[in-house]
Amino acid sequence: MSNCRTDTGRMRAVVVHGPGDVRIDERTRPTPAAGEVLLALEWGGICGSDIAYWKNGASGTASLAHPLVLGHEVAGRIAALGDGVTDLAEGQQVTVHPAQLVGDGALPERIAGRTNLYPHIRYFGSAAFDPHTDGGFSEFRTVPAGQIRPLPDGVDTQQGALAEPLAVALHAVGRVPALRGRTVLVNGAGPIGSLVVAAARHAGAGTVVAADLSATSLAVARAMGADETRDISRGESLPEDVEVVFEASGAPSALGPVLRSTARGGTLVQVGNLPGTAVSAALGDLVTREITWIGSYRFVEEIDEALRALRDGLDVTPVISHRFPLERAEEALAVAADPGSGSSKVMLRLAVPST
């Protein structure tokens, strides 16, 4: 395999400059400071936030003030160690926990340990702070050693780049105790929904049903472990009286049918991001059916659980639908954003390792 990296002092990065303006920029290759490592990135997965920055110049309430390197689902190899880093090694295959707390990290006792709820977090590929936090869609990036997660034996860097979204799914599934043997509905079979299917199956769910408007997405959900699928576009209805429902579409119009599908006294976990603006939704069943409706946001340390699951044989590669080289990043974003493309998780080959 040939070496596709740039010269020793430069590197390429996928940089969004504004709405509809993403470029492959050449930048100076960074040098790790004390306590950091230099990563030679190999794979990255495109997420909805990457698409939002590209299409709208914003993701949620975070808006671009400056160019931003995209990407928070990444993996590669350690290229160099900064001073004081002794528990990692050059050449080691790793992924990254993309969250870094800003400040003392103190949380109220009622949410102690739930660092995903800490109010000030720098996240890879996020414009929430100024200066922004560059992501990992680049050939190289320096990372604090504490955010590095070594890949287990048998887990390659393409799988390693899936550990972050799998951690999101595992966190969502973990919001419901004692899932083993229970019937589960996952509404929305995009990349996260399909990973929730795999995570629920991994957690021992009894029957897993997936619903979506896309036959292609439902085929991915079946490959990830769904026992049944419901194609809403063909008039198929959601199942009734489901004990545990994961809403992964983020579509306000889905909330009424999903609440009606949830059993009386059941639990609905909201995984899909809902709009930050006013929407119209039928929510009456939330009260009359005494449904427990809970949110699920990113993850805490479930990325470690994700790596153990991958090590133990959980195969989530069916979620990958497309692979593009770094220089075709704009095409990759367009495919990931197009509901008619048949895409699920679109991967970027950030660089080919040297032989």
Automatic annotation (TrEMBL):
<dbReference type="InterPro" id="IPR036291">
    <property type="entry name" value="NAD(P)-bd_dom_sf"/>
</dbReference>
<feature type="domain" description="Enoyl reductase (ER)">
    <location>
        <begin position="18"/>
        <end position="348"/>
    </location>
</feature>
<dbReference type="InterPro" id="IPR020843">
    <property type="entry name" value="ER"/>
</dbReference>
<dbReference type="InterPro" id="IPR002328">
    <property type="entry name" value="ADH_Zn_CS"/>
</dbReference>
<dbReference type="InterPro" id="IPR013149">
    <property type="entry name" value="ADH-like_C"/>
</dbReference>
<keyword id="KW-0560">Oxidoreductase</keyword>
<protein>
    <submittedName>
        <fullName>L-idonate 5-dehydrogenase</fullName>
    </submittedName>
</protein>
<dbReference type="Pfam" id="PF00107">
    <property type="entry name" value="ADH_zinc_N"/>
</dbReference>
<keyword id="KW-0862">Zinc</keyword>
<keyword id="KW-0479">Metal-binding</keyword>
<comment type="similarity">
    <text>Belongs to the zinc-containing alcohol dehydrogenase family.</text>
</comment>
<dbReference type="InterPro" id="IPR013154">
    <property type="entry name" value="ADH-like_N"/>
</dbReference>
<dbReference type="Pfam" id="PF08240">
    <property type="entry name" value="ADH_N"/>
</dbReference>
<dbReference type="InterPro" id="IPR011032">
    <property type="entry name" value="GroES-like_sf"/>
</dbReference>
